[in-house]
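G., before I forget:
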Amino acid sequence: MVTTKINGRYKNWLIALFVLLLAGASVIYYLFTLQYDDTADVKADYTVNAPAFLKEFQQDMAGANKKYTEKIIVVNGMVSAIEAADTTANIKMIDTATGAYIIFAFQLQHLNEAKQMKAGDLVSIKGSCSGGHFSEILETENINFKRCALNK
Amino acid sequence: MKKTMLSFALILATGLLFAQKKTTTSAIINFDATTSLDKLPKADNKTVIASLDTKTGKLAFEVTIKNFAFSNPKIQEHFNSAGWMDSDQFPTATFKGNITNLTAVDFTKDGKYAVQILGDLTIHGITRPMEGTGSLTVSGKTINATSDFSIKLADFGVNGGAIAAGKVSKEPTVSVAAEF
């Protein structure tokens, strides 16, 4: 009788442990097989205009970095330059007065959208903001974006 | 007056002719810290700022750490966290150096030239001297620079359980490509 009770408790503990391990393994599997969503399908945290956005970084780099870094942002502005290679297509919006610029590296599935843009086009680009900094090489501010897509 | 103007124009023209600093804002760095246990820790950064002075051989790179794009959000979060690159505190990595065998490169003649590079690499706020090799491919007015090397994460104060567990390489490989 006593042995049966102990066996029953032991069995329950084993089941609980098994469920716990299974849940843990599922969470780990989920986290490490997770992929970034297509940025085109992600809701933007902010929508900004390129000149005002650049100005905000130029006036308060630390504050702007805190506000925008790792956020999904839609930037509306004019294409100043396209820097494309086989596997990349970066779009730049440049403040001609200061040389400061925003640069957008496009997500692989959206490379063609970037390659079709031309200098002077008015565009709306959505991407993940990686923050801004002052470049010692170029002696001006720049703001970087990754995983970008044309905002439709 | 005419002579002064002519001299001024000559100085300006000479200055422009010898302004040999070429820059790009779209150099690419691939970072690969994968191991047999984990294929996820690899990323690329496509908005690297680089400069090359073809007259002096001076070479420089600036990398925004947060612009390394990983496929997995969790790995990206770890990479930027305080225990790793701590990109809030150290937002950029830099290289400042020189091509030490610049005489081996003829920038007026198309071809691929092997170069020796010597300089200081700063990652995670720690600066270490670095010596490496690379190549410069001259094609008309375009110069393509490439270099592959590895870094010891411990040298730059980057340690962690994942490295000890063999899930992240102790010496990731880095590939740099810049078109000037």
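The longest strand of chain A covers residues 122-135. The interface with chain B takes residues 31-36, 65, 69-70, 83, 85, 88, 90, 92, 101, 103, 105, 130-131, 133, 135-138, 142, 144-147 of chain A (CB under 8 Å).

More on Monday.
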